Structure formats: structure tokens, C-alpha cells
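## retry 2 of 3
previous attempt timed out at serialization; input unchanged, resubmitting
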Amino acid sequence: ADLRFAARSFGRQKGATAVVLVTLTLAVAANVAVFTLVNALFLRPFPFPQPDRLVYLNEQAPRWNLEFTGINYPDFDAWRRGAHRFAAMALMDQGSVNLAAGRSAERVQAAWVTYDMPAVLGIRPVLGRSFTREEDVPSGPDVVVIGYGLWQSHFAGARDVIGRTLRINSRPRTIIGVLPPEAEFPGGIQLWLPLGGDPNQTWQAYSYDGLARLEPGVTLEQARQDLLAAQRPIWEARDTARVVSPRIMPLRDRFVADFRVTGTALAAGGILVLLIACANVAGAMLARAVFRQREMGIRMAMGASTRRMTRQLLTESVALAAVAGLLGTLLGWWGLRLLVLSAPDQLPGWVRLGLDGRVIAFSVAMVGVTACLFGLVPALQVRRLDVRDSLAAGSARSSSSGQQRRLLDGLVVAEIALAAVLLVGGGLLARAYANVRAVAPGFRVDSVATFRVALPQAAYPSGLAQRAFYERVLQGLRALPGVRRAGVISCPPLSCHWGSFYEAEGAGPSADDASDPVVLTRIASPDYFAALDIPLRHGRFYRENEGLPGGRPVAVVNESLARRLWPGVDDPTGRRFRQRGDTSGRWMTVVGVAADVKHYGLAQPSRPGLYIPLASTDSTDSYGALAFVMQTSVEPTAVIPAARAVVRGVDPELPLYDVTTMRTALEKSLGLRRTTALALVTFAAIALTLAVGGMYAVLSYVVGRRRHEIGIRMALGARRGQVVRLVVGQGLRLVTVGLLLGLGGALLASRVLASTLVGVTPRDPAVYAIVAAVLAVTATVAALVPARRAAAVDPRLSLADDA
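## retry succeeded, writing output
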């Protein structure tokens, strides 16, 4: 009966009801979308038994300016033997491989793992077995364990797949097992290959990731101390300065590190929008309840109890919240899917968005919370209702009580304050994003296409063979219509990192505690610089065939490395340097200084780096995966089919991968920052609309209730301008109080965004001034409409209505 009465009541006020529903639906949609994302990133357990016992292992080197160096295999071997609080510990390296089938090939995600990875993840192959300790050795047997998806797509789930052969990187490998679907974590891995590490090799790169499973009941701090104890023999034997140390953290923390600030900002924005919407609707429901005072008085005079009337009002609130909750859940899910489709590369591959039980429970809770937030205010007013006064409420002379007006004013102040917080946050992020976009990358972005080709060592066993392949492909690319220039490089901007340490000739030893950042090292052909229009600061770029084995080693350094190795030297051209620890007497000569490029992203500082000629590779080198860069006179993607044909003409088993344009790569690097700014600006726009709309509604309500008073004022000589100033002044007083509270709250809340702000501080005065101006102007405009309506009151009609 209460629901039927509520439906009839809302049906008599279709316009007002629709506004309330739209307001709540938008707020619920924003929160459902944000919670679905937060749930997928931070709450949903990983698809393994007891995922809370899984931890991530790595190493750190503050002197090298690296939070994560990667793990050195001998260090891992020492940990595995010396640590005792881990149930299992494994090492892995992710990448992609060429999977050949006949005369065609495709690029497939793979992981090189140690034999103990199944024990760490707590999984078993669905078919066959994984490899053993004896197979996980250098030059071990050629075996492979395939992923569930690849088993289905390439073998149609055949049970006799065990023992078949796959040609991986031009090398046949025997299938010994099939992994369950969860083993594709974290990025769609389809192949497991034995890592085959050698703990006795004297020098190895820090390049692996570690996963481990803690013993039951072991805390993270206990595991950290256990790792440090296992690391001490390494420090004593070969790292006496303790440059590198182990690092451990919960597995999820490593994967979501880049999303924490974004998740916090979006969650806070969604909650603020919900609070503003509830304050808005609470004001509307309170005004509605005031207009219904006569109805309520009649019903109570006829015997309805306060409890009965409260139940009726709460039923109406719950009904509105339920409808808005259903519509908001659907709208939020649809909006999130649309956002993901428009930016598919912004979420990591292991994230699975879905309306699971946690999201449904959140939506149900949202209905209850919103119903309480905006429904309790009018319900509590009923408990203070005086029947005799309410029966007289039908008179136009009656006005709302001072307590009701103060409550409405308080709701408007709260809306303005919360909107100010969101506007400041959105303004700071928008300005920071604009600052980042204005940063010069140092390389050509438009009309540049890139792709990678990986050369299997089985087919290209030496650097000489690999160089011959790259030069043949470059020759073919340069002859293509629409290609102006083409070059090849090991790490193009915004992609990978590979580095080492270098020392200048004649330089003295550095202090033990001095900063010693890793130098980004790239192998590049001479035309690479022209293909990306990288400016030359001093000297020249190296030429074709310069730096050949047996000749004079040469290099081009960037400005940062020049300042580091030769501080105070304007032009280090002709100076010599070498890789630290190289005792062969191989000194490289600087032939030129190139401008710094934003290799790690526009918001990241440039780091020391250098370029080594592709021609310097010899029979002992191996650079099996380089990237081709083409500057084009046509749309960059239009030349990719022809480039693919050139590569196949040289080697039909080699697929192209990481095919993109520099513009796309740049936009992708900014994607998370752009999405966060756009989402918070959208929330801020919604908040501003709701807050200003709430103030308009309250002022309209006040004008309606004070119509008789305004008529008397005008009958006694008040001019229209005075009436307008009266109403507008009331609105501006509310805005002023809300702004003072909101801007103060924004000063505290904006600290959360500090790490994402570029070229702007959390207390940027320009943003705060703009927010204050926007709220003041929009609030004034919103107040002018009811003010002009009040000024248009005819005193004769107003007083006649009261007769």
C-alpha cells in the first residue's frame, strides 16, 4: 500500500520526480563504475589458492636510481637456498616468441620460469606435467608447457597433444604439459619455457622478476628479514658496498602500484558526487515534505501515527533509491565498458571487469545508503510536526520554519563545499595534464611508424648474421613508396630499458655513497636520428660502417650523459669513455652529442644515455630484437603491410610485433593521466551542476514561500532591484560559506594528487581562483532566475491571494 501511494504521489509530480531520479542515477552510475574498476584492480583475489600468501620479489639499488633493478640469477639461487620462511620461490622473465606454423609465424606471449613456479602459484597442469629441476638447467632439453588458450586454439583441445612439437624461435620444442587457464596470469601467457639459469656464471644482468609463496602464518616483515639474512653472504662475497638489496611486497601491490593514486582520486570523486546528489535530493524531499504539511496534518488528525508517516516517507525514499540504483548500475556498467573500449591499453591484461557478487552487493548497499542519506531528513521533520500548525499550512501566508530554512541552507552549503573540492581536484589534474602535453618530447611524433622483429638465435647465431638481416630489411624499407627515412634501434622512445655503467677517461674513483644511475644504452643505425628528427647539439652523428669491429669504437651521447661524465665541459666531442670494469682497453670516442629525449615519458626526467652503432656488432654479440622506425610522407599505418612484405621477403618465419606509431605510443603513455583527469573533471562538472541546481531549487522554494512577504515589501515601497539583491545576496552568502569550507578541504585533499601533478602545486593559486570565480558566477546566474521571479511579484495579487 505504501508503494502504491508513493507511486501515485510521484506521478502527480512527474517533472520533479524525474529530476530526482536523474540526479540519483548519475551519482549511482559514477560510483558503480568506479567501484567496479576498484574491485577488479584492488579487491578481487588472484585466481590462485590462498593468494594472500603470494609475494613479489625483486632487488633495489638507490645509488643506481632504480626502485626495481630486476633479480640477478645467482642472487635468487642464494635466496632459494638460504631463506627458510618461504614455501616455494620462483623466478620468471616475460616476453614474446615467434611461433611458426608452416610458412607463417605469429608472436605469442611466453614466460621463462624456474621449475618451482607451479608450487608457488599452487596450480597443476590439466594435462601432462611441468618441467623438472633436471630440465631447468643451462642447455637443458627443448621442452615447453603450453597454455590452455593455445591448446584450444591451435590443437582444438586434443588429448594427444603431449609429445607433439612446436617450432619456437626457429627451434623445435616438445610439448610436455598443458597449463590451466589461471596460469595465463598476468598478461595472457601462452607458453612456459625453462629459465635454465646458471648460478655459477660470474656476471649476470639484473633482469628477472621473482614470485614466492610464504609459509603459513609468516608475516611480510618476517619474510623480509629472512631474505636479508640470505643476502648477507652475497654482500660479503661480491657486493661489499651493499649497492643492491632484496625487496619484497604483496603480489597485488606490485601490479597496482601505478593505479593507487588514480583509484583513490576516482573513489573520492565518486563518493563526493554521491554526497552532493543526496544533499540535493534531500533538499528537494524536504521542500516536498513542507508543501505536504497540510496533507500530513490531516492524516495525523485522522489517526495516523508518527511512526506510520515516517514509514511512508522512508518507503518513498527507498522506492526512488531502488529505481535509481537499478538504472545507475546499468548506466555505470555501460559507461565503464565504453571507457575501456575507448582506451583498451590502459588496464593491465590480468584485470577482469565484471558484475560479480561484490559489485552487486555494493549496488544494493548504495540503494540503502542513498535512501538513508536523503530520506532521513524529511522523515525526521515529521516527528517534529505540529498538527494544528500543519492544518493551517495551506494558507499562502504561511512560510517554512527557521529550522527548515537553516537545514536547506546547510544542504546547499554542503553541496557548494563538496563541489569546490572536486572542482579544485579536477582543475589541478587538467592543468597538470596540459603541462605534460606541452612538454617537447625531443623526437618526431607525427608520421612515424615503428615495429619490432625478433631474430631467433637458432637461425641467427651471431651479431654479424643479425646485422646483415637488419641491413637488408632497412634497404627494402627505404625503397618503399611513402617512406622518407628508416632506421633501427634496440629501444625506441617510450618502450624498453637496457643499461650499463660507464666511466670517462681520466676520471677518479667516485665516493661509495655517490649517486650512480644506470646509463640507457641503445644500439642504433645512423639513419635512426634522421628518422626521428633528433637534434644534434655538438659534433656529428656516426656514419655508415663507422665503428666496425677492429676499427675505432665510437658513440653518440646525450646531453645528460655528457654533463655527468664531463661536468663543466661545453662540448665533449673527441673525449673517450668505456664501460665500467672493461679492462680490454676498448675506449669509445664521442663523435657527437644528441639532444635529450623523453624516453620514459613526458612527465619523467631525461636520464643519461648513449647510442652505439649497429655496425659495431661482431660475432660474439647478440641483439636479437630491434625496432624499425620509419618516417613517412603518408599515413604511418599505411606502410605497415608493405613493411611486413619486406620482412617476409627476407625471412618468412618472422612476424612483426609491437606495431604502432609514435603518436599512438605517446598517447598511450599519457593514457592513465588523461583518463584520471577526464574522469575527475567529469565528476566536477556533475558536482557543479548539482550544487548550482540545488541552490536554484532552494532559492525558488524560498521565494515561493516568501511570496506574501515580498508583496508586502513592494507594497511598502521596495523597488524591484532591492528585491533582486535580497534574493541574490542570500544565494551568495551560501556560496561564500560553502567556498570557504570547500577550498579549505581542497587544500587538504589535493595532497593525494601531488605525485601526479606536473608543473603545478597542490596549492596552485590560479586553480583556486578560477574555482572560486566559476562557483560565484554560476551561483549568481542560478540565483538571478528566482530573484527576477520575486521582483515580478504583483503586490496586489499577492495580498489578494491572502484575503
